[in-house]
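Worked Example 4.2. Consider the chain below.
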Amino acid sequence: MSKLITEKKFTIVIPDGKRKERLDLFLTNQLENATRTKIQKLIEAGYITVNSKTEKPSYKVVPGNVVEVIIPIAPRPEETEPEDIKLNIVFEDDYLLIVNKPAGMVAHPAYANYTGTLVNALLFHSQKLSNYNKTDEAHPFKRPGIVHRIDKDTSGLLVVAKDEWTHAKLAAQFAKHSIEREYWAVAWGKFKNRKGEIDFNIARSKSDRKKFTIVKDEGKTAFTYYEVLEEFEFATLLKLNLRTGRTHQIRVHLSGTGHPIFGDPTYGGREIVYGASLPKMKSRIQNLLEIMPRQALHAKTLGFIHPHTEKFIRFDSELPDDMKEFLNKLRKE
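Applying the procedure from the previous section yields the following structure tokens:
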């Protein structure tokens, strides 16, 4: 039986140089597993204060503000419950299924995030999912069917296994880096070369355990190939392929080259890199950041050898509506 935790508290001091930003949007980007709707409900219920005062979700935080957050925590359920959550299923057979995950959905339950996950939705959809994953202190919940993950605020394709044998065969392909994975992203700035490879090692940050960073002589090797698809005034649409699959790999690699993914709250993508000194330009970019409150990153293509047919299969997905709107706005700009 897990210990009952009734609430979790955070105190955030807005740092110097931080641009004005809506309170609800700022906290959505700051707190792990938070959604804008949940943050707005907490604000309205009085669980969030700025300088010890309640404010509206639209309040603009500025440097020096002290934001205090109380998140009520329900007791952890003994088992993950099925939930009737609509899934965008691209493909399904007796052994596996391909899901196009929306941004904002967590792959599996974790601390203080026990509902609304992909696993909750999968349990409702299918009576047959693998139990290949083991539980441990870091992952106390079972993760039925989950072969791999993409970040909560990254959209795109995931493969889910329905039995242990299929799961093991798929996991082996991921371990060998033979899975074809293509991502599309919008990054800040323009690239010197139309194509290239980023091969910096990646390790967990020593100053913030939730983040990763580029390192020289330690960490894990990581390889990201990029190709420029379209250029805009101050941003670039990229196609990216992974030869390795490190946590936050694309986000860390692009940030490390000075081209963070637009909208990425963790790796510098919400800082105005170009035109900050020009009022009209700054206003235009702030509007774009409102349109794209997450990292502009989508797992577009997924290809692998089907464990049972032994044939290579590939799946492609359209960009989600928020990225389409964002790109159309960039083209008009």
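Residues 7-72 form a domain with the Structural Genomics Hypothetical 15.5 Kd Protein In mrcA-pckA Intergenic Region; Chain A fold (CATH 3.10.290.10). The chain has three domains: 7-72, 79-176, 179-333. Compare this with Example 4.1 before moving on.
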